[in-house]
Amino acid sequence: MTHSTSSINAAPSPFVEIRRQLHQIPEPGFAEFKTQQFLLNYLQSLPQERIQIRTWRTGVLVNVKGTYPKRRFGYRADMDGLPIMEDTSYEFQSTHHGYMHACGHDVHMSIGLGILTRIVQTPIRDDITFIFQPAEEGPGGAQPMLECEELQDWMPDQIVALHIAPEYPVGTIATKPGILFANTSELFIDLTGKGGHAAYPHLANDMVITACQLVSQLQTIVSRNVNPLDSAVITIGKIEGGTKQNIIAEKSRLEGTIRTLSASTMLLIKSRIEALADGMKTAYDCKVDIDYGANYLQVFNHAETTQAFMDWVRETDTMKVIECTEAMTGEDFGYFLEKIPGFMFWLGVETPYGLHHSKIEPNEHAIDLGIELIGSYFRWLSEQD
């Protein structure tokens, strides 16, 4: 179900309103200064007896004290936006030109604040660490945040995170034990040759031609080097080269991403990219520099914990549960799951536009449902011996 502008503007709940305010201030990774201050201002409005607040770079950590703690649970929400020009019907569009919350991080944060508020107002037995993490979209905030001193005393024994899913209806969640999201790596390739006049191609080394040849060859890696029963993706999303139509380009640049369902396949693909790059050097007498940028570990859900959560949701009839297949999306929450038992799940926000699209408008009814779901789950967990 999609929403008209009038329905979107009708009597929002407090945390829907918070989402709308956050939606207006998307910021790049490690530059979420307004977002951090917004979170801190809200947290200061809550009763302070049961909460402790710490900051790390542009992130925020909150410890909510339990009444008789034996364990510590964790909820993680990412904070950063994307360099996308917004094209929604919202009256609360981004005020930061060229940036947008197009991946649902505004929704993730508002749900986190809702769960936190609920637990502060009606405490549970165990402690909970709320982690508002910067730079999920890049250069990657999870790995350094896990190593920061501010988190060490509040490290969860079990952790959960969610991600909005445009393809699922509101009231539906989807997850699975084991691998949920892929291993990912950024890919940047710079080609440097010899520029010249368009009329004298024999006196130059054209890096536009070289870039085109390399893009075509990169697409053979998945089709000819990866086991057909495995899964992998190489996408080149951006090409830059040249300065004018009658000048042979001295430089070109490819920007892309690699996605795999296994760490060994990631290594295989990088090895083949480097072999093809060596071939380019010889064939086109040029220099080739490769940078893999940010690399994200697979999101691998802890089997026992994930299955227990799915069973609990079904037994309580809280939401509809779908056991989904793995996706080639990337998420640095995988670094948390490498160290802490837990899981991530998709939260249905039914909308025709996908993640990272300039027109995406998540169904906001999912926000209060997410708060109710995870708030009740933490309470149930805390009551288990």
Structure description:
It is a single chain. By secondary structure, this protein is α+β, with helices and mostly antiparallel strands. The chain contains eleven helices and 17 strands. The protein has helices at residues 5-8, 14-23, 33-44, 105-121, 142-146, 149-152, 207-224, 263-284, 303-316, 334-339, 365-382, and strands at 51-56, 59-64, 72-78, 127-133, 158-165, 172-175, 178-181, 183-192, 196-197, 232-241, 247-248, 251-260, 287-291, 295-296, 299-301, 320-323, 342-348. Helix 2 packs antiparallel against helix 4. It is elongated and about 75 Å long. The two termini are 40 Å apart.
Question: What is the topological layout?
Answer:
Blueprint: H1 5-8, H2 14-23, H3 33-44, E1 51-56, E2 59-64, E3 72-78, H4 105-121, E4 127-133, H5 142-146, H6 149-152, E5 158-165, E6 172-175, E7 178-181, E8 183-192, E9 196-197, H7 207-224, E10 232-241, E11 247-248, E12 251-260, H8 263-284, E13 287-291, E14 295-296, E15 299-301, H9 303-316, E16 320-323, H10 334-339, E17 342-348, H11 365-382
Parallel strand pairs: 3-4, 3-5, 5-17, 6-16
Antiparallel strand pairs: 1-2, 2-4, 6-17, 7-15, 8-12, 8-13, 8-14, 9-11, 10-12
